[in-house]
Amino acid sequence: MVEVVRGLRYNNQGLAVTLARTFTDYNEVPHLAAKGSVQLAKLPVEFAWYTYYAVIAILGTVLAWLTWQARREPTPIRFFGLYALAIPAMLALSPLVWTHYFLWLVVPALYALEHRRTWVIGLALASVLAVFSIPARALGAHMLIGFALFGLCAARLHADTANPSLHADTAAEPSPSA
Length: 178
Fold this sequence. Notes:
Elements: H1 15-23, H2 45-70, H3 76-93, H4 106-112, H5 117-131, H6 134-138, H7 141-162, H8 168-171
Helix pairs in contact: 1-2, 2-3, 2-7, 3-4, 3-7, 4-7
């Protein structure tokens, strides 16, 4: 993917491509120079791959650990939390991630920030502003928002599994009205 010029464009916010485009010397190779890219360092390409694998390992470990913790008392809100947690991990794993893929981040935002509407509005505003900024897209602004939501979802899911009564109101079944 990194060897294909179209894959290096600023619109592709895949983690591996963003790391290669931003932190390695790919932009100095004439046929690989990417339009709109922002280069912060000129490190060996191995840096991008090792960082990518480390991030994927961390996301996978957190997801597996929280899945293991949530298995004891499966509830609909925990299932939704695991689903919300998997979405940023899926986006980070994918080599080709266009800007519109980040609409999937609405699910983790709704889960993690259920009672914090100003945060949801702030993230939505940051996301929209990043769409209009080529340097922000080139730096992977939407992926960074995804990582923030991954952390918030993980914290909420961990709190829910550690203290089930904390989110008992959201996990309870609605009572039928008479």
